[in-house]
Amino acid sequence: MKILSSEAIRELDMATCHAQGISTIDLMERAASAVTVEIISRFLPSRRIVVMAGPGNNGGDALAVARMLYEQGYKNLEIYLFNVDRKLSHDCLEQRNKIITIDGINFTEVTKEFTPPVLGENDVVIDGLFGSGLKRPLDGGFGQVAKYINGSGAYVISIDIPTGLYGEWNSWSAQAVRSSMVHANLTLAFQVPRLTFFFEENYEIIGEWKLLDIDLDDAKMKDLETQFYLLERRNIRPLIKPRHPFTGKRDYGSTLFFTGSTGLVGASILSSRTALKSGAGLATVHGPRGALNIMQTAAPEVMFEPDRNEHFITDMTVHHHHQVVVAGPGIGTHDQTVSALEGLLKNVPNMLLLDADALNCIAKRPALLTMLPPNKTVITPHIGEFDRLFGDHFSSEERLRTAIDMAHRYKIVIVLKGHNTMVVRPTGRVYINSTGNPGMATAGSGDVLAGVIGAFLAQGYSPEQAATIGVYVHGLAGDLAVDELGEFGIVASDIADHVGRAIKMVMER
The whole model's pTM is what? Predict the structure, then answer.
């Protein structure tokens, strides 16, 4: 699914009106109807609903919703239209004129002083002050209204986007500015999500978000350019190739893992066994000599290649042919291990995935970044590892900007792990994952992801494809595990155990 800019969405709206032969007010009515249905599904007519409408089309949406709710029996309704500059948009003015013809409706047009209604935690506020058309941080009287709403304890529903928040980049992060944005419990957006929905720092402002289908023009949607995409099952299924019946294990690739150290052999087990569960034909772990018995007992399907050192890896020479090398989970950052990684980067023969401590080793010797093989490297940092590599960042938005720059500079794929894991390609395209849940915030989850992506690299998928498939399948496996065990009850091996079923679900028509 495309994630469109506010400008592109306005272009899509106009194209829809032209293609379907409708006016902008007709499209507004359609959007308002979708919002109204959603509100009716959540709240009884006895609930007190206070509508705050601004002077633009977002305000027009809110007025139309108010009218429709009133017509559906929601009489405990108060409507405030802020028209302090005496300049309403054309469609907002039309909606206002419809409202004032309704007998008995509680409507107030604010042109000077605003006496706010007393709001409490049992009330619902519909925020239609400003949508994505806002061009600067909210301040003045509207900022005070937003703060009043936030402090009321009422349940807040924002139409399109919470007032004060931009649809894409919100470069300002000062708490004073963010406190003057409306903080929604529920954001109802139309057809496509906004990039801003996927940044952690905006969660308390957006709350739950839901897309409402208002039948925007498909042809124009396909034509619009974007850099950002939300991964869905329909995007992943065509990428996964079915297996031919006359094949053997070597047709599905060999994965070599440089993983583990004393006390962290579990990372070797999780990553290598997951690779086999994800379809790799062969998996070999090169780990410290002391891990031999553990590996052979816990993962009998995995071959083991002992390092000369008992406790950590000192050599990352690739002795046999493998389609992909995965390095990092549990290896630690001993100086000899860092040197071994440097040796690997100088001579890596095929695809390369670097995770966890491999990234921390590079952070100790930043010059190693320049040695990453272009167009065949995937790195999978979490937030802390990313910042150790590329410097401190103060927001997930800022971190994504850096990831886009670094992926392009080094010609690598960056899998920026988080609630909505982002796959950043060298071209600048970003694919945001839609699967996964908070239960996956557990030790070893990243090792499992490394195994999934490594397996698809071994099977001949490009770094871009393997990373995209891997994050979706990993998240879906976590969702399947949570369905059985709950968010508090899953561990990384549960995610690994559901990977095969997740791939099966993706491939099913």
Answer: 0.95
